[in-house]
Amino acid sequence: MxxxxxxxxxxxxxxxxxxxEKPPIKGDSRQIDFKYDRIESIEFGNPPDESVKETLExxxxxxxPMIRSIASGCSLKVFVDSSHxxxxxxxxxxxxxxxxxxxxxxxxxxxxxCQQFIRRQIEFAVWxxxxxxxxxxxxxxxxxxxxxxCH
Length: 151
What we know:
single chain, 3 helices
């Protein structure tokens, strides 16, 4: 069923899809309910085993947009060792660079994309939401243990 106001707007187009699908949680019969469920912490690290079958492209195009859409007031932790592709970190930082829902960032210095991501998050905290008090804590390990607090 089309959601447009007139049938002329929908000629030849596919039916409108709901904004969010409810993907099942692996190994659990429950599903994510986007109306009530929120992400409190996003953690990227080394997978415990090789059971993760998602490609970097699937991660970039499907997983990160879903995470970004429901992340609100959550923390982000990124700890990826050198045995994983460097572009994984770039994909994470590119995919979450417009995420305004982060309140705490804890990561190592993963290069230029990481630094751009941190600058962008500080801009969101300081300039994009001046009427609301937004506290952002950024901790960068391996860079003289820098911790920034933005109010």
